[in-house]
Amino acid sequence: MNVTLNTQNVKHLGRTILMKDTLFLSLSGSGMEFEYEGRGLTLTLLGGGASVVPDNEANYARMAIYVDDERVYDVQLSAAQTTFRLAESAQPKKSVIRVIKLSECAMSLAGIAPLEISAGETVKPTPAKAHKIEFIGDSITCGYGIDDEDPLHPFQTKTEDVTRAYAYKTAKALGADYSMFSTSGYGIISGYTDDPTVKMTNQLIPDFYESMGFSYDLMPSHPAPMDIPWTFQAFVPDAVVINLGTNDDSYCQEDTARQQEYADAYASFLKVIRKHNPNAMIICALGLMGDRLYPWVCKAAKTYSEETGDQRIHTVRLPEQDPEIGYVSDYHPLESAHEKAANVLIPAIREIMGW
């Protein structure tokens, strides 16, 4: 028998949406989790258009499947469908199954088909955790290159792993369900640029925040994720953590007019975040790949608070990665740097939220 992946049967992780019997995944960390009792089930992962392009491993979606917290599969989707047998046993037993998209939305999409179980077997959502956090960020939040400790290597989905990055670590330590909205190279007023005279206005998080994300990929017979509005009532966070500015800094440099533009746009984006998350505490963080714009993050938060009277906003400076220790691909942070950042953010959130 087939099990539809609605919220009555499985817990959705991150921004996911059920479309045409497929659980549609775009963003880092999106997926599902459920409790299963039986002798073994069949799980089918669906790849987007990138999955059927030969020799495209730099862009295939990377997925992890866990059984009882053990990662039993870590795969790239290089076919339209990939099927797995999970939790097999001679006698019925209980297992917790979790499926997570490790790579980000920009290059590849994924889906999950209805589960196949036998008559008499059961599937139900895992319980909600005590807290909920939304993270809004860029490549740092995605875990860019974290499995490739060569800073000269470029982006590849196969070396991204959101579970090794600061945001996932923070949510896990705080006992929180999470949702992540992050895309590599994106910013508030400019995406990453090699040439500070060129402003990358096509790579802005605020332009896509109200959707399922941005992707160059497409799922067959599905709309593009940026054309799918996100229903904010589907995940109501207690806290929203923003970590944006690293890519803007490549454009702003030391130019105070550009830095002010960043702060002004940041303050405007805070109003959008508040509109969709009326009761959440907002926490603005920056620093893991440089903190030159951190004073302007603080200025944005102050401007927003003064303009709106909203006092439910805080700033947190994250520790910068140490070049003496090293980098991963494209000079992104090692997992140890992510851990240091999480170890600053975790107690800050506990203090701010009273958790």
Describe this structure in words.
- There is one protein chain.
- With 355 residues, this protein is an alpha+beta fold.
- Strand 7 and strand 8 (70-76) form a beta hairpin.
- It folds into two domains: 2-125, Jelly Rolls, CATH 2.60.120; 131-353, SGNH hydrolase (Rossmann fold).
- Helix 2 (166-173) packs across helix 7 (335-353) and helix 4 (246-252) packs antiparallel against helix 5 (256-276).
- The strands form four sheets. Strands 2, 5, 7, 8, 10 and 13 form a six-stranded antiparallel β-sheet that branches.
- It is globular and about 65 Å long.
- The mean pLDDT is 97.
- It is built from seven helices and 18 strands.
- Helix content is 22%, strand content 27%.
Tally of DSSP β-strands: 18
Q: Averaging pLDDT over every residue, what do you get?
A: 97
Task: Provide the low-confidence segments as ranges.
Answer: none
Count of DSSP H/I helices: 7
Order of SSEs, N→C?
A: EEEEEEEEEEEEEEHHEHEHHEHEH
Using the CA coordinates, give the radius of gyration. Answer: 20 Å
Count of the separate structural domains: 2
Tell me the helix content.
10-25%
Summing up helix and strand content along with how strands pair, one would put the structural category as: alpha+beta
Distance between the termini: 42 Å
Assigned CATH architecture of the largest domain: 3-Layer(aba) Sandwich
For the biggest sheet, the summary is: 6 strands, antiparallel
